[in-house]
Each structure stands twice: as C-alpha cells, then as structure tokens.
Amino acid sequence: MPNIEITTSPTGRSPEKKYFFGDKTQHLDLTRPKYNKIGNQSDYDDFYNQMWSLENYTHDLEFVSAGIRFRVCTNDDRHAQFVRNMFTILPKSKPADFIILHNTDLKIDEPKIYVHLDRNEMLIAGTTFLGEIKKGAFGIISFILPEQDILPMHCSAFTYNNTTNLMFGLSGTGKTTLSSDPDYKLIGDDEIAWNDQGIEMIETGCYAKSEGLTPETHKTIFDAVELARSRDTLVVENPGAANARLSYPIDCVENAYHEPQQFDHPDNIFFLTMDAKGVFPPVSKISGDTVRRFFETGYTSQMPGTEAGTDEIKPLFSPCYGSPFMPRAVSVYSDLLMKKIEQHNCNVYLINTGMDSSGVRYSLDFTRNCVKTAIDLAVEDNSQDVLKTLEQLIAE
Q1: Residue 394 confidence (pLDDT)
Q2: 91: CB partners within 8 A, 6+ apart
Q3: How far is CA 202 from CA 103, 118, 321, 330, in A?
Q4: In the predicted model, what is the mean pLDDT of the chain?
Q5: Global pTM exceeds 0.90
Q6: What is the pLDDT confidence band of residue 388, given thresholds at 50, 70 and 90?
C-alpha cells in the first residue's frame, strides 16, 4: 500500500489509561500506580464484548518478539502498516501466546488500554496513536521475560569497532539518533532483550523522531526514510507536531542487521539523559551502586509531546528508563541488569545529551565523539586512559 501520513488523537501515549486484570496482577509493582492499575473484571468483560461486537477487523497479523508470539487484529490500515514496519510478520502456524485487539472505530470518550494477564489479551481503543500497539507489546514482553531470567530493555543497540553496545534512554534523549550513527551497525533503535547467550532484537523496525532531520546531522535516518518512501513503506505520524515520528522497516537502514539474530553480550552500556539544567557533564564513567541508582531513577528532562498532555519541558524520573513499560518491581529489572553487568564485565557511562552549565545544548557531533572515544579507549583496555581522555575531551 502507499506511504501513510496520520495525525493522531491524542498525539502521544496514554499510559495512565492502562489497566491490568487477572490473578497475575499480584506480580505488578503497585508503588507506581500511574502505570500499574488493577481494574474490575466486569469492566474488562464489558469492554471485551464491545470490541468484538464491531466485527470490522480487516487485518489479522502475527509476529514473534523475544520468543513470544503475538496476534494483532485491527480495523485500521494505517496501524496494520505500522505493525508490518515494526515487526516481521509470520504465517499463522500455531496459536498465539498473546492477542492484541485494536480498534479505532469504537466511539468512546478517552483511550482505553486493558491487559488481561491470565487470558493473555490486550484491548486498545479510543486512541489512534501508533505507539500504543508497539509499547503495549513491549509491556507484555517486560512482564513475561524476567521469569525466564531475561532482561527486557528500553534501549537501542549497535556494534562498533568489534564491540556490542547498548544505549538506554527515554523518548527524546537520542537513542535512535545516536545509535543510527553512520559508523555503527544498528541492531535495534528502541527495544532489546538480554538473555544468557547475549542480546537480541525485540523489533525489526524503527520509530524515529523527525524533528531536525537532515542528511547532514542524521544521514542514516534520512537515507532510511527516503528508501522507505520509495518502497511505499513509510509511515509519517503527526507531521509538524513536537512528537512527530517516522516508522520504517529496519531493512531500510543500510548499516543495520536486517534479520533477527543473537548478538554477543554488550561490552559498553550508555545511559542517556537530556539534562535541561546542565548539572551532569557530557560523559562520565560510572560503576557499582551508581549504575543501579541511575537505572532505578532514569532521570531526564521530558520533552513536549512524548505523552498526551505534555506541552513543556519538565524533569522526569522513569525507573529502568521506561517505567510505563516495566510492570514488575523496579528491583526485578535492576537486579537482573547488575547481575549481567558483573557477569560480563561491562563498562557503563552516563551521557548528557542536553545542556551544558551555560544552557547551551551539546552538539550531536560532540556527543557522538564522546561515545566513540569511550568505546575506542575501552577496546584498548586502559581505564586510566579512558578517564583522562574523556576529561580532556570535555575540557575542549
């Protein structure tokens, strides 16, 4: 089908409208009630009956992500194309582990996202925002994987200079932009799983912000978008809005791995924060309890449009750099991360993609240089040189 342009309502996710159901809700972290709310079974049954009564589900798609088979039924051509962009669609060879029922025709006053953890069902209506399906699947994955000693991560991943690298960060901190550097080979730009063998893709598509997109500063993304456009697979979401995004299959990215596969354990991990107050330096190496604290708090400055109702820059603390998608206790994820970092001797760095102390934002080229310098020096396995060179880079 041709390229798609969609203006959604709302223009961001609605995580506060998500409710969980079933006996397995006992495993939710109820200390974060904004994202982890338990609903009444009767409400779920009423909504379920409403959704199935429409009988207009023209798209029935299946994909496997992190070993979990999803079935997505939707009435909307635009959302079906988005799902095809973000995941590898498979033939229906076996029953799905989880079904996502999505409808944009149901007339209700506000978004509803209902997840039944016992019946393995997710219902989405009252919103046309594309990211609800994508992040809905990720939230389900993030609930299931820790039971298998696998860490779901809201991060990007790439290889560079014979190393495997992770970048954690909330929307707007630069995961997609920085990991799509022309010198890297992209594994995934937003969601990754870390198992006993190494890391693997959760998605096979990209969901990049379009603000400031030029061939000079974002060559990899710009070229991928143009290729997707020529293939009629580009989805443009909310053009002109602060949170405008572009969706395209990962095989449109020339320097990326196009097939799902297993990769080595990460050598380096980067925590990204868009610090609007200029408190943090542009790059610093961290370890031990400092790593745990940053991961468990996930500080950044939230940018306008990331979620519905956000229209100004404000401080945000999001545990695991993705609190809305991590329904279990924060310690479940942080314990897994610290265990894997220790087992595989990973270097960890904090990267400020925001402002310096004078209120000027660090340039993309400068931040890229900081990341590459850290990786290159770590390859030489000299921690003193790493710290000394990073300090010199900052001073310049």
Answers
A1: 52
A2: 62
A3: 24, 23, 16, 20
A4: 92
A5: yes
A6: low
Selected residue with higher pLDDT from 312 and 45: 45
CB 96 within 8 A of CB 68: no
Angle at 369 between CA 288 and CA 304, to 5 degrees: 80
Confidence at residue 18, expressed as pLDDT on a 0 to 100 scale: 97
Question: What is the spatial distance between Cα 12 and Cα 361, in angstroms, rounded to a whole number?
Answer: 25
Average pLDDT estimate for 123-130: 98
Sorted by where each starts, the structural domains of the chain and their CATH numbers stand as 4-148 (3.40.449.10), 151-205+259-395 (3.90.228.20)
Return d(Cα 353, Cα 351) in angstroms, integer.
6
Residue 378 pLDDT grade (very low, low, confident, very high; cuts 50, 70, 90): confident
Distance CA 94, CA 256 (A): 30
Structure tokens at 172: 């707007």
Q: Are 172 and 359 in contact (CB under 8 A)?
A: no
Above 60 in pLDDT, residue 385?
A: no
Distance CA(297)–CA(318), nearest Å, equals 6
Q: Is the dihedral of CA 240, 245, 251, 253 positive or negative?
A: positive
User: Who wins on pLDDT, 208 or 141?
Assistant: 141
pLDDT digits (tens, 9 = 90+) for 53-90: 999 999 999 999 999 999 999 999 999 999 999 999 99
Strands 98-103 and 68-74: parallel
pLDDT band, very low/low/confident/very high, at 301 (cuts 50, 70, 90):
confident
Beta bridge partners, 284, equal 350
Is residue 75 a contact partner of residue 61, using CB atoms and an 8 Å limit? Answer: no
